[in-house]
């Protein structure tokens, strides 16, 4: 019988039991930490998380300039209390007690660069931040099994302590490698739970929906398009054959939509002409995904998003797909596809569904690139 779930049991003053009103409030207290909060994505993402009524505490961390962002966002009259943390010495405080940690820290692309060109700088940033996450925000849950031995009328307690991490939403590029890096760091620290680590690929879904609605002439708010694989070039595989509402698009139109979705990030990088990559649409996408995580943690049913997670849906160890809320163990996840989110993070990784011949071909083509990005991340983390 699970009696109670507590975070940072011994050390954190912000543990669930100590949080104001936890027992009586319908909406539980939830702390969200944004790492890289003063950046192009971090600032609008901080704003959007401040507008989210599921958040009670918003911790904004960056290596510099966070006090200004926190003061600014903190004046907004919504539920959460905002605190700003600057520099490595304050990272622990920012992370302590967090339910969801969002990481948009790191350098963005300039025209002519691939996401992989960011590896040399961002891999180190992500590794350092994940080491801190492993140290400062594990959740401890205690299951106490009460065993009554009737014969002798004695009562015996067996205590079982489990260690979980906050849900980690990785935005920093190259996502195809930074998620495996995070997984390795958590494994080394003994805190890895594949249900709690997500590569945020929501922006590809957002783009696929927008482009499809425009081409199919259907209301964008009604559109659904799964996007699977990874988050770079051809590893981004939108499944327009499964898009709804259905539309009668030609093969040429599907090919063009696929290519535009795969090149969406580059389209923005070129339009910004050296001033960075997508920030506003990414903040929107990051806020959608973090909201899904919070809803899942709070027990909402059927929270499904695409995310790049550990997977066994293909032979690749990480893959993006839909994640479903259920309590299945996730030892198998490894490509980006839909996942159901719940109290434990990923509750179920959904399959790819029926693919068109074009999508099957795309799936085979993306595997070598995704595999090599995963291996690069794992190798770096273990150096
Ligand atoms: N997953 C996606 O779909 C997606 C979409 C857009 C951008 N991105 C990626 O997100 C990252 C950030 O993009 P941006 O436009 O916000 O860049 P940015 O340069 O505007 O902001 C990055 C922020 O990270 C901070 N930072 C650097 N090192 C840090 C550290 N060790 N700890 C904490 N903060 C640190 C910087 O100070 C800066 O404020 C890039 O890697 C970019 O490629 C991913
Ligand atoms: O394209 C980039 O470099 C940023 C991001 O991954 C995106 O898809 O917009």
UniProtKB/TrEMBL annotation:
The lineage of its organism: Eukaryota, Viridiplantae, Streptophyta, Embryophyta, Tracheophyta. The keyword Mitochondrion applies. Residues 31-142 form the Lactate/malate dehydrogenase N-terminal domain. It is an enzyme of class 1 (oxidoreductase). Homodimer. Its EC number is 1.1.1.37. GO terms for molecular function: L-malate dehydrogenase (NAD+) activity. Pfam families: Ldh_1_C (PF02866), Ldh_1_N (PF00056). GO terms for biological process: malate metabolic process; tricarboxylic acid cycle. The keyword Ribonucleoprotein does not apply. It catalyses: (S)-malate + NAD(+) = oxaloacetate + NADH + H(+). It comes from the Eukaryota. Keywords: Mitochondrion, NAD, Oxidoreductase, Transit peptide, Tricarboxylic acid cycle. Belongs to the LDH/MDH superfamily. MDH type 1 family. It is found in: Mitochondrion matrix. InterPro entries: L-lactate/malate_DH (IPR001557), Lactate/malate_DH_C (IPR022383), Lactate/malate_DH_N (IPR001236), Malate_DH_AS (IPR001252), Malate_DH_type1 (IPR010097). Residues 201-380 form the Lactate/malate dehydrogenase C-terminal domain. This is Malate dehydrogenase. One of its GO terms (cellular component) is mitochondrion.
């Amino acid at each position: 019988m699970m009696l109670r779930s507590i975070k940072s049991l011994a050390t954190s003053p912000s543990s669930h039991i100590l949080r104001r009103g936890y027992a009586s409030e319908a909406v539980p207290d939830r702390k969200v930490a944004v790492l890289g909060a003063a950046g192009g994505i971090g600032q609008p993402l901080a704003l959007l998380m401040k507008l989210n009524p599921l958040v009670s505490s918003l911790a904004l961390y960056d290596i510099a300039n966070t006090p200004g962002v926190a003061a600014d966002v903190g004046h907004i009259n919504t539920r959460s209390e905002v605190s700003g943390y600057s520099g490595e010495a304050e990272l622990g405080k920012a992370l302590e007690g967090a339910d969801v940690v969002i990481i948009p820290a790191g350098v963005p692309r300039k025209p002519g660069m691939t996401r992989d060109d960011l590896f040399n700088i961002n891999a180190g940033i992500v590794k350092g931040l994940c080491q801190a996450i492993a140290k400062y925000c594990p959740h401890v849950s205690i299951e106490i099994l009460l065993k009554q031995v009737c014969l002798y009328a004695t009562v015996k307690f067996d205590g079982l302590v489990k260690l979980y991490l906050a849900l980690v939403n990785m935005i920093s590029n190259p996502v195809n490698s930074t998620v495996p890096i995070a997984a390795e760091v958590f494994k080394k620290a003994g805190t890895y739970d594949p249900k709690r680590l997500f590569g945020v690929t929501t922006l590809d879904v957002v783009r696929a929906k927008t482009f499809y609605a425009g081409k199919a002439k259907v209301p964008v708010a009604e559109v659904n398009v799964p996007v699977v694989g990874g988050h770079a070039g051809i590893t981004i595989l939108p499944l327009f054959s499964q898009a709804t509402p259905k539309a009668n698009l030609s093969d040429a139109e599907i090919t063009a939509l696929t290519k535009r979705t795969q090149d969406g990030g580059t389209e923005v990088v070129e339009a910004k002409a050296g001033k960075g990559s997508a920030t506003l649409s990414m903040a929107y996408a990051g806020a959608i995904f973090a909201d899904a995580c919070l809803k899942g943690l709070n027990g909402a049913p059927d929270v499904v998003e695409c995310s790049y997670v550990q997977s066994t849906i293909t032979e690749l160890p990480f893959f993006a797909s839909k994640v479903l809320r259920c309590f299945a163990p996730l030892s198998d996840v490894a490509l980006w596809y839909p996942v159901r989110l719940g109290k434990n993070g990923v509750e179920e990784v959904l399959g790819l569904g029926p693919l068109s011949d074009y999508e099957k071909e795309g799936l085979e083509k993306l595997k070598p690139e995704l595999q090599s990005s995963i291996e690069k991340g794992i190798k770096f983390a273990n150096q």
